[in-house]
Amino acid sequence: MIPFRTMATSAIALAAIAAFPAQAQDAPDAADSAGNGDEIIVTGTRAAGRSRLDSPAPVDVLNGETLRRQGSTEVGQALATVAPSIDFKRSSAVDGTDAIRPATLRGLSPDQTLVLINGTRAHTSALLNVNGSVGRGSAAVDLNTIPTVALDRIEVLRDGASAQYGSDAIAGVINLRLREAREGGGVSATYGIYATDIDTARGSRSVTGEPVLTVSGWQGIGFGNDGYLTISGEYVDRKPTSRGDFDPRVTPNRVTSRFGDPEVEQATVFANAGVNVTEALQLYGWVGYQDRDSKSAAFPRLATTAAANGVGGIWPDGFLPLINTKSRNLTSAVGLRGDVGEWNVDLNLSYGRNRIAFRTLNSANYSLGAASPTEFYDGAVTYDQWIGGLDVSRKFDIFHSLNLAFGAEWRREGYKIAAGELNSYTGSGAQGFPGFAPINAVDAHRRNISGYIDIEAELTSRFLVAVAGRVEDYSDFGSTANGKVSARFDATDWFALRGTASTGFRAPSLQQQYYTSITSVVVDGDVLLTGHYPPTNIVAEKLGGLPLEPEKSTNFSLGGVIHSGPFSLTVDAYQIKIRNQIALSENIQAAFSQQVADILDPLGVQAARFFINGVRSKTKGIDVVANYKARSENLGTFDFTLAANFNDVDVTRVPTSTSTLDPAPPLLGRNRIFTLEEGTPRTKITGAIDWSGDLLGATLRTTYYGQVNQPGTAADGSADILTGKHVITDLELRYQPVKGAQVAIGANNLFDVYPDATPAALNSTGVVGFPYYSPFGFNGRYLYARVGLTW
């Protein structure tokens, strides 16, 4: 455990030590400045013209070309590769989370990071992660609904910002900035395969194949004197990967599972446009749509299991159920912005919707025996969001300068669960993914209204102070108020100190409040219910469930900035205390105690789980980002980056009782607590060299991942699965004229590194091969080629 004071002192000391070589650099010229800290940001500040290195809080600016110069075209994966504070798990065998994966910032829950599109709040996925993955219990934004080809850049604010942007911004903010172009365009195709040696606990094998094809393109169209329309599109065809171990239950031993990435076919289109309607006002908007069809595998059912459950005639050799998720995602916005008198005004309306339909394929319902179908429609979940916003700002000639901003926002959210077909949920339900029954159907809504004020004052040319406050009122749980204070002192032209203090919150999501998955289980002729109940359902209430309240946070950061010539260094220490955090309880079973049985038996319920408030945690860490750009007339430009995140999450309190159960059965098991503390790497360090010549270029990136724990339930830790500490190397070589044909070849995970294999003693079925908590996945070496044409 590292005391925050020690980390803060270390941050300042590191900045001061690094300053000595920086003093020897020449003053930056226009060429050296570009892309080296002078990128203008719009995230974390409402003052126009502020750059990344001039801000009072740490902001990463990741340009679109950096994101696209990788083997993966997924935004979540591309972000995690270049930003050490972000992790993107490649989970498997956790139902819908296989297909819709959440990202984490600074080791916190995926829903504690706010995602914006062009500064407007993005809508979350309809999926609630309820299985054993990092981010269990969260409903987060699906970053992969926006292709990298549609992006100009991504800004990552690594600081609490609820007072500026509202709910969810506890860990920080990810702002996806869409491409704006009046001309130009390009198309590209990327094709890759895995060429890997898989060494699991029970044996080894090699794989060459499992191809991924991505075709993308964009076109800028100008109209009028200043109008622009940028159209982007992407098609992805990804074959599944399989990294399970050999199954000891069959003779001869063979791989019976499909543990790995799902099969995906996906098409996405985006349009972003703007045009001046007067000299002072611009009409703007965007719309994006994605259709994603994913098929992930559940655990295999062997021939003996199929026969014992009456479906041996349908599946004489056993079967591998497939969970088919069809996600359709819409995001859109329209707005009017510009100058009204001496004020800058932005009035906008946005709408987003995500619908996920589930099917179970290659399966059976044991309760139907030989009459069982093999495919089932399981129902659907839908989330939608309307937002109307008004933002007003003005710069005053007070002090050195003063920027005043204020605004208001109205939001309406909706969440639905639609039942599946009868065969999907009746009796034991479809194997692999039972369908939603009519008892699970939900149609819920809520409204929210908020107002904020944000003041940034440059008291002198070297001293900046910013204050922000925000009040929000929700129709379901009431009001909350949050504030933030930031300061920056430029001690010299090349060294500055900065720090922030803020409070934050995250409203309980509609998914957490209303998600229901209840199945019927026949025991000795009696129909008993078991599953997930909303916290205000009568079953949860009898067990002590209460209406969910917002999570609250207190954030502090302190850091230093060095910028001299082509060299920059930022070191920022932070501490995030979260209280009243929401967690999904363990299953509370009637067999736990007579008290629980007396509550559940009259309700015909065998076991229940529900969301509860009450977890407390403290997160401490240090972010370090160093960059040096060297230009040569003969050799081109070398861009050196070294970035690191050192992070420590400590769960300081968990609820041990409810309003009716005291003491209660374990509400949060050991594996849930350790997932919060050790489910993401405590140390992640990335070093990259990007070289660009007139026609040729190359990128070499090496990332060190600290050990991650995929914890078990055993109190002594004997069931924990550790990933080990590993280094991943990526390399890309490219021919890259500004216009014309382009070619690139590369390798992700060049040296074919895997996390430590899952021990055979903890893997009696051989279904899994490696811990799916691995921060870099478990697919091995990926080789790819990219061809394109720009104009």
Task: Describe the model.
With 791 residues, the chain is mainly β. It contains 11 helices and 35 strands. It has a single domain (4-790), classed as TonB-dependent receptor, beta-barrel domain (Maltoporin, Chain A, Beta Barrel), CATH 2.40.170.20. The chain has a 22-stranded antiparallel beta barrel. It has a 5-stranded mixed beta sheet with strand order 1-6-7-4-5. The chain has a 4-stranded mixed beta sheet with strand order 21-22-26-25, covered by helices on one side. A hairpin with a 4-residue loop joins strand 15 (376-396) and strand 16 (401-419). It is globular and about 80 Å long. It starts with a helix and ends with a strand.
Number of strands: 35
State the shape.
Answer: globular
Sheet with the most strands? 22 strands, antiparallel, barrel
Count of discrete domains: 1
| CATH overall fold name | Maltoporin, Chain A
Low-confidence stretches: 1-35
Percentage beta strand: over 45%
The CA-CA distance between the termini, in Å, is 54 Å
Proper CATH architecture: Beta Barrel
Radius of gyration: 26 Å
* Helix-and-strand structural type: mainly beta
How would you name the oligomeric state of the polypeptide chains in this document? single chain
Number of helices: 11
Instruction: Give average pLDDT, whole number.
Output: 92
Fourth-level CATH superfamily: TonB-dependent receptor, beta-barrel domain
CATH class value: Mainly Beta
* Helix proportion: under 10%
